[in-house]
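Entry 12.
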Amino acid sequence: MTLPLPWPFDREYMQLALASGMAVGACAPLIGTFLVQKRLSLMGDGVGHMAFAGVAAGLLAGLSPLWTALAVAVAGAVTIEWLRLRRRASGDLALAVFFYTGIAGGVVLTGLAGSLNAGVLTYLFGSVLTVSPADARSICLLGAAILVVIAVSWRALFAVALDEEAARVAGLPVDALSIGLAALTAVTVVAAMRVVGVLLVAALMVLPVGAAQRLARSFVATLRWAVAVGLGSVVVGLAVARAGGLAPGGTIVLVASGAFAITAIFDLGRRRARASS
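Predicted 3D structure (tokens):
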């Protein structure tokens, strides 16, 4: 059912894209704020490439790519965090191993899928304008689940992201919280696949956070600004994409990049003004 929204969201496909995009635009920066705090900004990239292998496996097996990608991404993300916590591998090494394994597995499975390659590309580069009502519902449900978990546990997650050893001393279940954050990252990546694609999902996790850090003075303010930038990037990106006939996923990320550049210039000007006063 088409809602009476103004242009450019007057068509049903744009409204489905808007609903899906806003769910991702809110969740990706939320999770990204914790990842940036933990210096794991590339976690989204590594998990995204594992999700790509899951998509290819689902298409090859005739299963839903969304759920096979979710299973593979969660398993991979949890394994990466387990290796890091057990000191079996450093965070960047574990990410690199799964990063390249995921992309290689995706390429091999895509080759086996043959004629289904076009279906893989919609997840690789995003295809938010072709989101079906069922896809939009799934993305929004995943987004709602992420928001609920963050609302309940953000203080504990922040304590772990800020200082793991201090969090252990305080009695927090650091391992469980870290693995839970890794699983949330995987869920976010899978939810974002149809919006910006697995190649760009990490950008939507990191760029709004980078912009928010130049505007905020506290972690809570950073969370709020990051979500605001993420939502704004989705709305403006979709509008510009429709007006110019551009790829929506890439346009959304470019808008987020522009927001980062503007806030960086603003922050530089503010610091110079303080230095001269």
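Annotation: The first helix runs from residue 12 to 37. Residues 12-271 form a domain with the ABC transporter involved in vitamin B12 uptake, BtuC fold (CATH 1.10.3470.10).
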